[in-house]
Here is the input.
Amino acid sequence: MAKIVAARLAGAADTEAVLKALANQGFKRTEFQSFYVNPGGQHALYPIGGDARSDEGAKRAGRGTVYGAVLGGIAGALAGYAASIPIGNPYIIVAGGAIGAYAGSLVGALSRMKGGDRTKATASHPVERAAGQMIAVRVDRPGTEPRAVETLTRYGAREIERTVGTWRAGDWKDFDPRTPPSP
Here is the structure.
């Protein structure tokens, strides 16, 4: 496993400047790379589209949907029953139950969603990193890590992270955009 320092940059001009600076700092061309991280949900890593079944903040929404549909259906059926007495049409009960179940499912799902917690994120329930241009630098040689961090910082890098991963032929092979950066 290789030691890697990676960061997100503001724009393409910054990326080109960092790549030139890293080469001038004595890094070999096979020790750094530039790549783009797509916005969340656009990595096509889940079989039916998207990146995962649900993100970390929405993983409890399914249960909220069921509870909301049941409670909303009961409340809607009771309201339909009350409305059907003066009108004399029993189908109003069914319509009230259906409308209540639909509205309740929406409210139930939304009530269970929250912002994702990066400490609880997994690949199956991610809190995805921000989209943008990334630079990754292999820092296995002694003294290269501080130089890489200083260079990235000087050019306005955001979310500088230190990690380990598989680095082969100048590429970070096991990078997963669904995992949040670890500063």
Remarks:
- Helices lie at 12-24, 61-87, 91-112, 144-154.
- DSSP finds four helices and six strands in the chain.
